[in-house]
Fold this protein.
Amino acid sequence: MTPARTAPTPAEIRERLAALRRESGGLQLEAVARVLDGWSQAGSPWRARLERELPAATGFSPAVVREGLELALAGWSGDALRELAELEMPGGQREGDSGVAGVLLAGSLPMPSILSLLAPLATGRAVLAKCASRDPVTPHVVARSLRDTAPELAARLQVVDFRGDDAERVAALCEADIVVATGADETVARVRGRRVLRHGHGLSVAALGPEACPAAELALDVALWDQLGCLSPVAVYAQDADAVAEALAKALEQLETRLPRGSVDAHAATLARNERDEAELRGVPVHTGNTWTVVCERDARPRPAPLHRFVRVHPASGVDALAAALAPLAPHLAGVALAGFGPETPRAVDAAIGLGASRVCPPGRLQAPPLAWPRDGIGVLSSQTRPASIEITY
Amino acid sequence: MSVEAEILAWMREPLWGSDDERFDALARALFAQQFERCPPYRGFCERRGRTPQSIASWREIPPVPTGAFKEVALRCFPAERTVHTFRTSGTSTQVRGELHLDTLEFYEASLLPSFARFLLPDLAEARILVLAPSPSEVGDSSLSHMFAVAIRELGSQGSGFFVEQGELQLDALRRAADTQEPLLVCGTAFAFVHLLDSAVKLELPPSARVMETGGFKGRSRTLQRTELYLALEGQLGVPVERIVNQYGMTELASQFHDSVLLEPGGPRRKLGPPWTRVRLVDPENDEECEEGTIVVYDLANTGSVLAVRTADLARRVAGGFEVLGREPGAEARGCSIAADELLG
């Protein structure tokens, strides 16, 4: 079971930072690689524990947790970490960084939390993490996996729990050497620290060229984590929006049994209902099932995203129309699933990246980012290390 | 007698009685009219298989979501007969909801008795000090219009607006509040937050009361409602039990108020005039429940649509309701962390 929540005082948080600082230092790539190998195994006990405990804590259905973890963790191995280190810290000549990363977690998806905790550890930092209010489970399971697989790192991760609006405690935690803050834009903007890595809210879309209609893959991207991740597509842009909307609706219907949607709070359900009714009032085609909605829009104008398997399909023909349609989303664009652009694919990829997307992939792969995914354009490991100009050879 | 005339007659009756039969008859008659005269609404109802002939009760009248007022001109009269358009708040780049009116008569006929009953139950008039801009500054604000009508009909000398160009007029407010006359200070919640931040201490007479309305998150700083009320009590000397929250919105002609002045000592809950009804429903299946989405049926909405589904949640309390939180909107959402209050 997850340990009972503790709420240390601000002074205790500062004491913990000091103690963790003493534990930090030395590159820990191999230890974290062992941990990742453990997580990526099919019989991983920590995965099993997340599968058991996350549904009750987060509201996701057990099938979504199981399949979401399986897909996402498949590529998160020790070797992937070594490759990432080679990519972001070429030569590996550094001895690692010391100091503490204060990690403010948010949301209900386990994958970003796992990486937010392991990445600083790999570079030598210790971690003091505050649980997300909607996922009190994952950080404790990560801590357990350290104790089991890399006991030398166990003392380097501490998990605390307090209310997110507790400004004094948040400020104390932000006295860490580096802060990783995840949350709504306005809240992460308020985080102050020596060095702050901010992950505000993000969204993803799918863009389909002529004749492409990978409905089953799109439905998987939508259904996994119930659209609550920043790599979940909230909209699809397609030349034949009507046909894509219809096919996507069928695919979502088919997925309902295999990947049931989780619980939805009353506010979110109200929002989804209102958006659905509003679309019907506008007279655009609306496809609905018990737990999903596909709205076939008549223009590319961005509209509210109620999440929880609510997708809008917009018309957009060609790369230029796609770029124009995505432009208003640029500040929040995280991922784009692309298909069917043929020889125009490089231009489409460039357009997506130019608008700020940090992940471009085929439909069906949005929810399986590689370990090296530079979320929000921020390097996974390099962001944790102290930048320096070194002009001596050693 | 037309349905509008019957509704107006009800609004002008001095005694309020909750007459379910009368409400049902008028709501169904008004629905039939709106179904006939508002093509987008008719299409919406037909897709649900709801027509004036098919419904057995006002409860079956399909509500339109508040967001629809941003997208569709929900009017039951020719556009050229529009005499006034109220718009929801928002920046110039945001799409704003619009309520088109061919008359202000129902709007005013509904607001005045509610204002008097819930805010001045013991008074014929009061000095009404409004912490909001006047209609001359924001002509499309239903809130400012409401305050202007209240001042015109129920305000004594010295009543007025005390926000100009977004600034609280503190000196003028202090002078106007320096009275032994009955006093009502009303305004938006975020204007009250600004007043608190200014640290201006007003010496209000014992009969003073406060009415606040609207959201305030993200405007200056965020306070929980109880925190706001306690701070107002401390700074203005108005006890919490004399502070009334008004629940209203541009899309509705009628408003709901806390019961605390009308029924001192009773449980605080929202009550509305008899020409309104509120259903709390499960948003996924429309089943009525004790805690759910607020759906308002307002006979004063003669020129638009009488049934409106809000984005707010409430729970039933002693014949009224308690609002559980107002949904700020989903425009910027895109992943779950957007809804996660990291710092509150």
